[in-house]
Amino acid sequence: MTEAARHEPARGNETRARIQAVALELFAEQGYDKTSLREIAERLDVTKAALYYHFRSKEDIVASLVEDYIGQLDALIAWARMQPGTGGTRREILRRYVSLISDGREVFRMLHQNQAAVSSLGAAKQRGELFRERMTSLVSLLTGPGAALDEQVRAAMVLGGVSVGLMSFADEVKDREKLCSTVLTIACDIAEGPERSG
Amino acid sequence: MTEAARHEPARGNETRARIQAVALELFAEQGYDKTSLREIAERLDVTKAALYYHFRSKEDIVASLVEDYIGQLDALIAWARMQPGTGGTRREILRRYVSLISDGREVFRMLHQNQAAVSSLGAAKQRGELFRERMTSLVSLLTGPGAALDEQVRAAMVLGGVSVGLMSFADEVKDREKLCSTVLTIACDIAEGPERSG
DNA sequence: GTCTATAGACGGATAGAC
DNA sequence: GTCTATCCGTCTATAGAC
Q1: pTM over 0.90
Q2: Residue of A nearest to B175 (CA)
C-alpha cells in the first residue's frame, strides 16, 4: 500500500479531530446536553449529517473524548499496583497524577462539568463508574491496604485538592509547569503529613 | 386571620416541598437535563401541569433548590470579612465551611453533578458565576490579601479537599459527625502547613 | 465526504375545565 | 390545586442524491 491504511484516510482523521476539538470546547463551555449536533456542525461549517459519517452518535463523540483520558488513568493505576508501597512510590503516583490532569485538563474540565450527563452514558456504565471507582483505587494505592479512615480521607483530599488546585488557577497563571510543581509540592506535603514521624 | 397567611397555605407548601425533594433526588441521580418534568410528576402521582402551579418553570425548581445554599455561602463570606485575619478565624471559616457542605450535601452533590447545566441558567448568571466567584473569595479570606501564589493554591486545595473528602465518604460512614471532624482536622492541618514556623 | 430533507420522538410550557 | 389536551420548538438520527 502506497497510501495510509484505507480506513484511516488522512483527511478523514483531520475532520474527525476537528469535530472532537469543537465538541470538547462546547461540551465544557455550555454542557453536553445543551450542545446540539447542529451547533457543532455550524461551527465547523458542515451539516449535521456530515458528523454522522465520523461518529455513530452524539454519545460516541464524548466517548471518544473520554477514552484516552480514562486509559491513562487506568495505566497509572496498573503501574502503581506493581510498585512497592514506599513514600517514593506515593510521590511518583502524585507526580504522574498531576501531569495526567494537567495534560488532559480540557477533557478533565469537560468531564467534571458534565458528570451527571456523562455518567448516564451507556458506554460509561459498561466501563463502571468512570471516576468513583478509579479514585478509590488511587486512594488505596496512596494509603496501602487496610488503612484507617482518616488516612483514606486524607488521601482523597489530596487527590481532590490536586484537581481543584490545577483547575482553579489554570487560566490565570502564565507558567503551567510552575503551577504543576507548586501543586505537586503541596500535595506531597499533605500526603506525608501524618507519617512525618515514621 | 384564623388560617396561615393566604399565600402560604399549608398544603401548598407541603406539595411544593415534595416537588423539591423529588426533583433534587432526580437531578442529582441522573442529571438536570435528563430529568423531565413528566418524570418528576409521575413520581408524585400528579401531572406536569400541576408542577406549574408551584413553579414557573423547570429552571425555577432548581433555582429554589440552590437559593438557600448559596445564601449560606454568602453569609459565611460576609461574616469572615468582618473577622480579624488570625489563625483562629481561618479555622472557624473552615469549621463553618465543613458544616455548610455537610448539611447541604444533597444540594451540593446535585450542583456539582450538574455544573454545566446549572451554570447556564439565566438566574444563575445574574447572581454571578455560582461557585468560582465564591471560592475566590474564600481563598482570599483564608490567605489574606496579596498572598503569594503557592499560598493561594494551598488554600484552594484545602477547600477542594474538604468537598471531596466529605462527598467521597458520605455514604460509607456511619457517624457523619466524626467524618466532619476528621475532615476539619486534616483541613486545618493542611491550611496551617506553610505557616508552621510563623 | 458532504449535502438536503425529513422522519420520529420528546421536552417545556400554556389554556381552560373542574 | 389538579386535571386533560394541545401547541410549538428542538433534538437525534436516517435516507438518499451528488
Answers
A1: yes
A2: A149
